[in-house]
Amino acid sequence: MITRPANFCQIWRGNRELLDIRKPFTSLLQGKIPQSRQLLLNLIPSLFAIIGFFLLCGVIVYARGQNALEFYSIIFSSGFSSFDEFGYVLFNATPLIFTGLAVAIGYKSGLFNIGCEGQLYVAAFATAWIGIHLNLPSFLLVPLCIVAAMVAGALWGAVPGYFKARYGAHEVINTIMMNFIAFALMNYLVTSIYQEPGQMIPQTRQIYETARIPRLASFLPVLPDSNPLNVSFLIACACVVLCYIFLAHTRWGYELRLVGNARDVASYGGINPRAVTVWVMALSGAVAGLAGVAEVMGYRYRYLDSFSSGWGFTGIAVALLGRNNPFGILAAAVLFGLLNKVALDIDILLNIPRGLFFAGQGMLIIWLVCIEGISRKKNDT
């Protein structure tokens, strides 16, 4: 006879070893990387997709009558010829790390958060609003702005999560609609209420200096002062580590993954899937909101309307390429940061339209989606 556990605590006690937060660190100290072989196998399809993408780019360049080797040389020199060039790559990758992690958190629980773009817009405006209206010491104002961004993103993500949990409304439709609302609302606020006086550009005035986070050039002499890489990249790296620990070695990460893999089993074990749906979408929105912190506090020091180049949507591809593993997402974000920089350089140096290169990135995303679908189908059979 099968007895139902009274609540999640019994599952928690029975799986304490699996959820021990010390496990990844003790394994590393012993020279063992947990599930490294499985992670490598999961990344192989993504590696093939990347190789196929670059080979396709070379074929297209050759078909245009240009030197493919020169194209590959520009790719290398564009990202790795100096610390300054690599700094720009990491700068481009920073918001993609946040949005990739946000997508992965939702995906692990069986949710598809398409609303990262709207969430980071709302979070960026909340950050700018706090930084404009509160003149406090830096040690108070900087954390307050970051918290404001995370809260704004969390609230914007929790709304479709609540609709999903309460009414069964699909989160993809809800998050897409929330994106449109965010774009329109932020545009209204910045053009009609908070626009900088005397400016035609739809932007707010600058935040106080005490609300700004420093550039890494002030700590690293190898970077020139003009390099925009800032402390938000370090925040992104910390989020990668914390996200890995949270998903793999905490009780809440266990709940999240169990709901995503076996919703009925989670309910049987005393977990409330509806509550998990709401707080997961809120957490995903909070992480996506940190991309707004990178923009407002570390780069422009103001809110600029339509500042994102589609980071929320590109984060989906980053999560797919990284196989929803936090460290894989970090690597994938750096790759997309490189591709974004290369697109500008080949336009200037080889006269290859940026749109053609971005079309190749679109094909890469299609390949990744197909690979993900095939792998999920194999896992289900």
Main sheet, how many strands, which sense, barrel?
A: none
Second rung of CATH, namely the architecture: Orthogonal Bundle
Number of distinct helices: 15
CATH C-level:
Mainly Alpha
The fold-level CATH name is ABC transporter involved in vitamin B12 uptake, BtuC
Radius of gyration: 22 Å
Helix content: over 70%
Kindly describe this structure.
With 381 residues, the protein is mainly α. The two termini are 28 Å apart. The chain has a single domain, classed as Orthogonal Bundle (ABC transporter involved in vitamin B12 uptake, BtuC). The protein is 73% helix and 0% strand. It has 15 helices and no strands.
Descriptors:
mainly alpha, 381 residues, ABC transporter involved in vitamin B12 uptake, BtuC, 73% helix
Quick summary:
With 381 residues, the chain is mainly α. α4 (68-80) packs across α14, α5 runs parallel beside α9 and α5 packs across α13. The protein is 73% helix and 0% strand.
